[in-house]
Fold this sequence. Notes:
Blueprint: E1 29-30, H1 40-54, E2 58-59
Parallel strand pairs: 1-2
Amino acid sequence: MRDPFLKHRVKKFDLSSLDWIDEIPDCPVFSPSTQEFEDPVVYLSKIAPVAAKYGNSCLSVSFID
């Protein structure tokens, strides 16, 4: 049985194959108004279908002091 903690050599990572990263679309940025964000759970439920397509999103709430 092979020791799972046995150190082994890893090939050097080839950075030239990362061109696909430039094709990744930016995640959506949501900027709710004060009225839209009065009930955060309702707002998050509203944007969830769009945000879920990206697996990530940005919520910019600039009106909170």
